[in-house]
Design a protein that fits this description.
By secondary structure, this protein is mostly helical. About 60% of the residues lie in helices and about 5% in strands. A hairpin with an 8-residue loop joins strand 2 and strand 3. It starts with 16 loop residues before the first helix and ends with a helix.
Length: about 130
Amino acid sequence: MTRKPAKRGERLRTLSPLELDVMGVVWQLGDCSSAEVIEAMGKVRPLAPTTIRTVLGKLREKGYVELVPTIERGYRFRAAVLRESVARRSLKDLLASLFRGSPREAIAYLLDDADISDADFEELRRMIESRRRS
């Protein structure tokens, strides 16, 4: 049984890594056909065209992409969800599952483990100072 596309306001189901890769291409392209997604995905992660079309269908079922009205023969898609909202929710889920909901623990982990340049440290310092002032 095929699930209907998610309704507005309904909590979207989590994306798999493959679905996230395809969404990245859709966000990058904007309104696009499955053929355009297949071509762009070939540069990111080569997959069978049928696999990509199946993933686009799943993304539509989950409410992440929607059909664009067109007079063309095939479907056109566009993102129904902003990249920023997916990133924000994914980060919250990651914080909850790996860092006990603590942004401090996540940042401490990144500072200990990541290769962060002096320029990045300076930009982070400016961001923190700006946040303190507001």
